Amino acid sequence: MNEVQEGVRARYADRALHMAKGGAGCCDGDPCCDETSTCGDGYTADELASIGLDATASLGCGNPTLLADLHPGETVLDLGSGAGIDVLLSARRVSPGGHAFGVDMTDEMLDLAKRNQAKAGVANATFLKGTIEQLPLDDAAVDVVISNCVINLAADKAAVLREAYRVLRPNGRFAVADMVAIEELAPDAKQRLDLWAGCIAGTISLEAYTNALRDAGFKDVDIEITREVHLAGVDGRIASAYLRARKPALATAAA
Ligand SMILES: C[S@@+](CC[C@H](N)C(=O)[O-])C[C@H]1O[C@@H](n2cnc3c(N)ncnc32)[C@H](O)[C@@H]1O
Fold it and tell me: Could you name the CATH architecture of 3-246?
C-alpha cells in the first residue's frame, strides 16, 4: 500500500468505527466536513428507508444510483463502497435478477457494510476487499460502474479508470459522483495528506478528468457540476460533480 492509500485507509477506518458506534459519516467530529461536505445529498428519505439507513451512512457527494438509471437484471460495481449505501440501493434497483458488488480496501468499512446489508435484508449484494486501482473482478463482468466521492482519493486515477473500463461489458456505463477542481489548489495544499484524505487535495480539473476517461477508452464523456464548495483557509475552488461515460459497443482494450 502506498503512502496516499495508507493515509486514506487510516482515515476511513476511523470513520467506520465512529459510524459503527452510531456516529454520522460526515459532519460529526470531522473538520473537513464543516464547509465542504455534500454528504447525503441526493437521497430521498424513502429510498434510504427501503434499506434501513439514513443520510448519516453516506460519505459521498451525490447519488450515483440515480445517475446510472439502473434496471432489473443488471450487474453493478461500486468503487469504494464505504458503509454500503449505494451498493444496497443498487441491489434493490437491479432486482430481480441483478447483483451489486462493492469494492473497498478498508476492513472496518467492509465490516460496517456487511452489517448494514444484514440489517437491510439485501441478498443480491457482495462486498469485496480490494483496491480500485486493481479490481478483484474479471474482465467485462459488470454493466455499470458507479462510485461516490472516491476516485479523487486515488493517487493513480489513470489506473482506476483503466480498471473501470476493463471490468465493464461493451456498451457498459460509468456513472460517478466525485469532487473536481474548478480552479487548481495551491501546490502546498496539494501536498497535504489530511486534505487529500478529506476529498480535497486529490481533485483534478474537468479537463484532466475528461482526458483521463478518454485515454482509458471511454466515449460520450459528460461532466455536470452539481455544487461548488467553500474551502476555508485553502486557495482554489472545488465542486461536487456527476460524471458519465460509456464503454464503446465494439470496445478495444485500453492503451
Ligand atoms: C469518501 S468515502 C465514500 C464511501 C461511499 N462511496 C459513500 O458514498 O458513502 C471513501 C471510501 O473509499 C475507500 N477507498 C478510498 N480509496 C480507495 C482505494 N484506492 N481502493 C479501495 N477503496 C478505497 C475508503 O476506504 C472509503 O470507504
Answer: 3-Layer(aba) Sandwich (3.40)
